[in-house]
Amino acid sequence: MKIEMSHGAGGEIMQGLISDIILNNITNKQVEDGVGLQDLDDGATIPLGQHEIVVSTDSHTIDPIFFPGGDIGRISMAGTVNDVSVMGAKPLAITNAMVISEGFSGDELELIIKSMDEVSQETGVAIITGDTKVMEHDQLDKMIICTTGIGIAPRGKITRDSSLEVGDKIILSGSVGDHGIALMSYREGFGFETDLKSDVAPVWGMVEAALEVGGVSAMKDPTRGGIANALNELASKSKVGMFLHEEKIPVKREVNAASEMLGIDPFEVANEGKVIMGVKPDKAQDVLEAIRKNKYGKDAQIIGEVTPESPVIMETHLGGKRILEAPIADPVPRVC
User: Fold this and answer.
1) What is the CATH number that goes with domain 169-323?
2) What DSSP letter does each residue of 107-176 carry, written as one string?
3) H/E element holding 237?
């Protein structure tokens, strides 16, 4: 077996790599009573007295490193904050390790660090430690950023991605496909006449508002593989199905047009500032209203509900029904 780009693009191929090579060769996967590596959630937990420490780590290899709506610094901060957030934990701090190519622009590096600081100030998440390495110019494509986020939650209050229950309503916090389509259009120089930008943003404000209302059973941020992958993962881990309404899923006109031209399903494209929540039916409307008050959640919608049995089924715009399957991989490589 040789590692290919598809092994890092989310979806079934990446899950196979993680299961067959990584999990099968690591024996000590969790701290006692905590969420561990084998759970394949957005983070892991370390019980500590009356609280649980949540830890999540991520590496960022995005190409290009500057794109409409953000850069590698913003996505590295927001992405890790989001992984901690959807575990139901308040993000507290982040570590930042950078591997930089020899000859990289110091001015561009400063812009990237300033982007990280902007997210830090917006969320109150401190950048507390880090590491910097430099590689020969022909050994690395510009730079890689590795971030580890740390958060905290009351013990027993962690939100797992395997806790959906039949009848839960599915809330999506906004439009899908913005990040992947914006980045691909810019990277490949398609020249679409559009102001489409990446949605890269921290979701903690929306999550915090939802948790204050209550009734949140499960959460996930739909990054690589898009909402198709995230919804199927939530359903599979919870051993349930879903019935979704395509007309309720927000897709921007520009994203839809570009997706049709490129032959890409926007439901399989990465997002970097959205969250999917399973919410108890009696709390769903209140959670939706709370999310909509946040600047990143104004287009939030209830898009469906949890059903007793798989698969994930979608009622289409035309009134028919189709199975929304998990993608083999994200159709847009190196998006995060």
Assistant:
1) 3.90.650.10
2) HHHHHHHHHHHHHHHHHT-EEEEEEEEEE-TTSSSSEEEEEEEEEEEETT----TT---TTPEEEE-S-S
3) helix 226-238
Q: In sequence order, what are the beta bridge partners of 46?
A: 53
- CA dist 59 and 70 (Å) reads 16
pLDDT tens for 175-204 read 999 999 999 888 877 666 567 899 999 999
Alpha-carbon gap, residue 114 to 272, rounded angstroms: 19
Give the CATH H-level superfamily of domain 31-154: PurM-like, N-terminal domain (3.30.1330.10)
Q: Tokens 């990277």 label which residue?
A: 187
User: Which DSSP string do the residues of 152-171 spell out, in sequence order?
Assistant: EEETT----TT---TTPEEE
Residue length, the chain? 336
Domain layout of the chain by residue ranges = 31-154, 169-323
**pLDDT of 73-98, one tens digit each?**
999 999 999 999 999 999 999 999 99
Q: What is the mean pLDDT of residues 110-121?
A: 98
* Residue from 154, 171, 7 nearest 87 by CA: 154
